[in-house]
Amino acid sequence: MMAERRYTASKTKAQGRPGWSISFRHPLRNDTNGKPGLKMRRGLGTTDDAEAERLASEMNAILADPAWWNATKQSEAARLFSAPVVAAFYDEIQAGWPDPWAIREDRIPLPTADDGYSRVMLVGTTGAGKTSLLRHLIGSDPERDRFPSTSTAKTTVSDIEVVLADGGFSAVVTFFSEFWVRANLEECVADACSAVWERADAERIAERLLNHRDQRFRLTYTLGSWAAESHVVDENDWDFEPSVAAPPIEDERAIGDDERDANTRMLQSFVDRIRALSGRVAEALSLERDTDVLRLAGSERDEAQGVFEERLQDDDDFDALIHDIMDEIRRRFDGIRAGTLHHHQSGWPATWVLDEADRDAFIRQIRWFSSNYAPQFGRLLTPMVEGIRVRGPLFPTFTQSRPRLVLLDGQGLGHTPDVSASITTQITRRFADVDAILLVDNAQQPMQASALAVVRSAAASGHQQKLGIAFTHFDHVKGVNLPTFASKRAHVMASVANGLTALRDVLGAPIVRSIERSIDRQCFMLGALDQPSDKLPQGVKSELGRMLAFFETAIEPEPAIAVHPVYHPDGLILAVQGAARAFRRPWAARLGLGSHESVPKEHWARIRALNRRIAGEIGNEYDTLRPAADLLGRLTEEVSRYLDHPAAWEPRHPDEDEAEAVLSQIRRQVARDVTELAARRLIQEPLRDWRNAFEVSGKGSTFDRAQRISAIYERGAPIASTVVTETSADFIKDMRRLVYQAIRDCGGKLDVSSTL
Predict the structure, then answer these.
(1) What is d(CA 233, CA 312) in angstroms, rounded to the nearest whole number?
(2) Which DSSP symbol is given to 398?
(3) For the whole prediction, is pTM greater than 0.70?
(4) Helix H segments across 377-439?
(5) What is the dihedral of CA 731, 737, 740, 745, to 10 degrees?
(6) CA separation for the pair 325, 93 (Å, rounded)
(7) What is the band of 118 on the pLDDT scale with cuts at 50, 70, 90?
(8) How confident is the model at residue 16 (pLDDT cuts 50, 70, 90)?
(9) Tell me, what DSSP letter sits at residue 211?
(10) Would strands 159-164 and 405-409 be described as parallel, antiparallel, or unpaired?
């Protein structure tokens, strides 16, 4: 009876579409909160009322009998039920979502050092000029091509991979899964509903709907922007420099008035529905509590707002709104004319591929998936794109050489005042796959916390020799005490030296000295990157030439070194203990369960958002909240310090360069294995605990959730003491196994072989 009450289907009509659809909760799929019963809506391919009713009855027959709830029953179901019903229930319940990187690799394989190619990863803070630099490296004109897109805010939110090669032009674009898009959309709608709670006007409600708070999911690109007459200003009033009109580009004409008006009406209807939904849920909650919840303050308001958001997502009108917006997103894919669009079994776009001989035509088409051109808001697919890989003769024009490069660009790091902030594992897991890591930093404010975090992460994981630094905006480094290039460069490099000094206590003196010996020749001073390559000053072209030489030599094999470290195993326990403590203390402060000198308490809504992402298997991180990355960082740093001090060397004692080369090999293997360990212990194994933490509600739920998350961390990264618990013993055993294996695989030894 429970199954019949919970899992039932009904026919429904999507807003603006004549055909019938079917709505039901799927018993084999979790929703974006990690709970069983994902709300589904699938087209039935009919406009006939009676036929739609018949198909809904068939689905109810499947939902009423758990014997059908198995992927192996699909063939049998196909003989008894109609094709649309079978597809709606069985498609994708078993296969899951493939790895987007693997999809791109299958279509356009990335060449390696064996092919004579250097793989270069660009990493940098938002606004530093990372993508502007990439334009110069691939010969992309800022006016004619405008690829990739740039702006002062977060622009690159998808991975962009470029293979510089002779021949024609090819591209493969992979899209975020339907589940991921829906999860972000639910957060946007819930945020917009909260704006109603805060008595915001229509413009602010629309802003919350169209722009996710982490700035990575911007529906305004795809659905259009909200125009408020009261806020229209003459942009010429804010021009600080004369502007030069860009030449017209055929595909970049603004969308027409009719299309814009239709988008405006659509957004207005969504805002009206959000207001009605929020008002009804808030009114019901007020009646239940016999108080106007919109007038509450402090902790009572926080608790009521948490319940309000839970009630929203249980409401059928909330689901209907989500599905209608998802339908609008799907419609934007209908506008693709060139290339080939492939879909998942559910009908959601999977990949888009293009082969094109003409360069301009190729760039015009690829821009639909990467542009941030405001006059075309309402048509762009940029927010749905997970990754773009292109191959072709995209060589730099500032030099006559045709370098063999693979360039990997991704989202900016964001800005943080905390030097201990961790780099997302989406970036760090690629360190091992590339030959050079180019940190792009702003020369006007060099080596701030985010940039130092990259250096810290690369060094602790054994990749410091791959690290180069491109200082952009060098042309804006000015002062009466900086009259020459040499004095300006010395000013910037002094910041590098100061930053490395700050990292000495974290990384250890040997590894910092190793960076200091090479970093000077691997720093490049760049400016005027907003200009076309042919207008760059000769000094910038020279620095870019040095950078290309750094990339090309990055694939030279490391010299063989016949020395091997020997370690006492005892020190590793102290390193693991120190890492667990360094991970747990800041998180106790974030959760409001402790204090830390540099880490404030996080707002309850951000902790809940992280909890939701993990519980719903949407991701392991939320904005700057990155538990697995934090544990990875602390473990690799403490183990790195342990590795810095072997008990002996055989057959001789090496010099510092030799020692660092050997130890970096061990660090790299440890970092690779600890990446998997951190995700397993903090995310994968305690997934049920994360879901239980997310489900708490009511008065005191913020504190209860914090305690439950803290308990997950306590089990995942226990701090060993004189009393070694089973959990602590397992953690130490895991770390011993992978560190000792890395030492042995790289030729090192342990002086107590029985430790394992």
Answers:
(1) 36
(2) S
(3) yes
(4) 425-428
(5) -140
(6) 23
(7) very high
(8) low
(9) B
(10) antiparallel
